[in-house]
Design brief:
Shape: globular
Low-confidence stretches: 1-17, 468-490
Order of helices and strands: HHHHHHHHEEEEEEHHEHEHHHHHEHEHHH
Oligomer: single chain
CATH class of the largest domain: Alpha Beta
Number of strands: 10
Number of helices: 20
Structural class: alpha/beta
Largest sheet: 10 strands, mixed
Distance between the termini: 9 Å
CATH superfamily of the largest domain: Alpha/Beta hydrolase fold, catalytic domain
Helix content: 40-55%
Mean pLDDT: 90
């Protein structure tokens, strides 16, 4: 672990100059907060409060004020007298208001004519405020969960035969699960909001995933982006920063270093949330199908975005992410060896990752806290038959890019994606010591601590903007020739 870095200089964020929250997170207070005790608190709040609240909220969104429909969607036997009718009516009203704001946002940002900066800013501000109100409507169901025990997820575990029918044939050739479309989708770019630090806009395109929905990405770009390096970054499970107003995004500071930041939107989150589910719930509730569908889809979308970046810049490209986003990024980098050269990454940036998705289903403290192992066992699943699909969901023992270009950030106290699994991956991949950041933190406090300790991001900048450039083709040749003997992790 490197020594703590000095606080990052105050730079603008998408919502304007740095606010109190930004400055607090970059202060010594963040160091005091970023400790395992905080992870213990957050884990219990997430599994015992936030997820049951989200289950009720998702049921209310689908119910649209109907008591009977809410009872059918909630996922447990709930007496009619216990249904909070006022909360249902409030959620229905907030949903209608958000849908109107969303329609106005789409018309402003993706309409034929650019409406100008004032209209774009107002549409974005209105969208975020409406979304924030709707997302926070979860708390309307707090009295309900204090009286009734609600599930954290509405489980729909598929049978072994169902998963075997859809994904069994791919086990012999996992690359097929990650093939890019023969005809790449057209990527539509929104009108841009111009800032003093650069520009902000959105991309959308047809997803290659099984849902055939629309993939979204939020782009923050330097003003002079002709040869900018790019970071394509995936978020964690149920992490929906864009859906809340006033959230802090520490990655945007990279724009000031000449790096284009592309935040992807994972399937089943924010604009891609299916009716009746809260953000990310379907990933958990339909395991192992959730992982077999979401991870390859997110990985292929990263590959499509990489091709878009290559068309606009000669700069290096990094795939990165935290937790679920890291699992997606490492799979994308691994399977990119079968993609055309222009879609492959140069650098990999992983925060709180793991070498086995199947193991997380049974070992992760979040999985155990919400009863996923019991639900899987009831559906006939165990670690052995889950591991049979590991060739599709796991990154393998060979480094997907040059080890010098892989940066990994882990927490020794992480019980959500246990540290030993990420460390095993780093060892097999032969990561240099200066590329592995090990902190005495847990799953949630690792990213929190990075607001003050910028060393991992500084290392990422070094690899994205090296003094000498190595092409993707040269990288692949060097990787094939590199020794694969594991090295000890520091």
């Amino acid at each position: 672990m490197s020594a703590p870095a000095a606080p990052a200089p105050a730079t603008p964020t998408p919502s304007g100059p740095k606010g109190r929250v930004d400055l607090l997170l970059a202060s010594p207070v963040a160091t005091l907060l970023a400790r395992p005790w905080l992870d213990w608190v957050i884990l219990r709040l997430v599994t015992r409060l936030y997820m049951p609240l989200s289950r009720a909220w998702a049921a209310a969104l689908d119910a649209e004020g109907s008591v009977e429909r809410f009872r059918l969607e909630i996922g447990c036997d709930l007496p009619e007298r216990a249904v909070p009718k006022r909360a249902l009516a409030k959620v229905a009203a907030l949903k209608a208001a958000f849908e109107a704001a969303d329609a106005a946002w789409l018309a402003a940002f993706f309409g034929k004519a650019d409406p100008g900066p004032a209209v774009l800013r107002e549409a974005e501000r209105h969208w975020r405020r409406s979304s924030d109100r709707l997302m926070n409507a979860r708390w309307l169901f707090l009295p309900l969960i204090l009286r009734q025990k609600l599930p954290a997820a509405r489980y729909r575990i598929p049978t072994i035969d169902e998963v075997e029918a859809t994904h069994g044939p791919m086990r012999a050739d996992p690359d097929k699960a990650f093939e890019l479309p023969a005809k790449l989708p057209a990527i539509e770019r929104s009108h841009a909001i111009e800032h003093g630090w650069g520009r902000e806009y959105w991309l959308r395109f047809a997803s290659p995933g099984p849902d055939r929905d629309t993939a979204w990405a939020h782009v923050f770009e330097p003003t002079d982006a002709e040869n900018a390096a790019s970071l394509i970054y995936g978020h964690g499970l149920s992490v929906e920063l864009e859906a809340y107003d006033g959230m802090v995004d520490d990655l945007v500071e990279l724009v000031g270093r000449g790096i284009r930041v592309i935040r992807t939107e994972a399937p089943w989150h924010v604009r891609r949330r299916p009716p009746g589910w809260y953000g990310g719930e379907r990933f958990i509730a339909t395991q192992p199908l959730g992982a077999l569908e979401l991870l390859p889809t997110a990985a292929r979308e990263m590959g499509i975005l990489a091709g878009w970046c290559r068309q606009r810049s000669r700069g290096r490209i990094a795939f990165g992410g935290a937790s679920m986003g890291a699992l997606s990024a490492q799979l994308a980098a691994m399977r990119a060896r079968a993609w055309p050269e222009g879609h492959r990454p140069d650098v990999l940036f992983l925060i709180t990752t793991s070498d086995s998705v199947a193991a997380l289903a049974f070992e992760s403290s979040i999985s155990r806290g919400i009863g996923l192992p019991e639900a899987l066992h009831a559906g006939g699943w165990n670690e052995a038959n889950l591991n049979a699909f590991g060739g599709i969901t796991d990154p393998g023992l060979m480094a997907p890019v040059l080890p010098a270009n892989i940066i990994m950030v882990l927490g020794r106290a992480d019980t959500v994606t246990p540290c030993r699994r990420g460390a095993t991956l780093a060892e097999h991949w032969n990561l240099p010591g200066r590329n592995l950041f090990l902190y005495d933190r847990g799953h949630f406090s690792v990213p929190l601590g990075m607001f003050r300790d910028r060393a991992p991001l500084e290392r990422l900048v070094e690899r994205l903007q090296p003094k000498t450039t190595v092409s993707v083709g040269q990288l692949q040749l060097k990787l094939a020739a590199a020794p694969q003997q594991p090295a000890k992790t520091p």
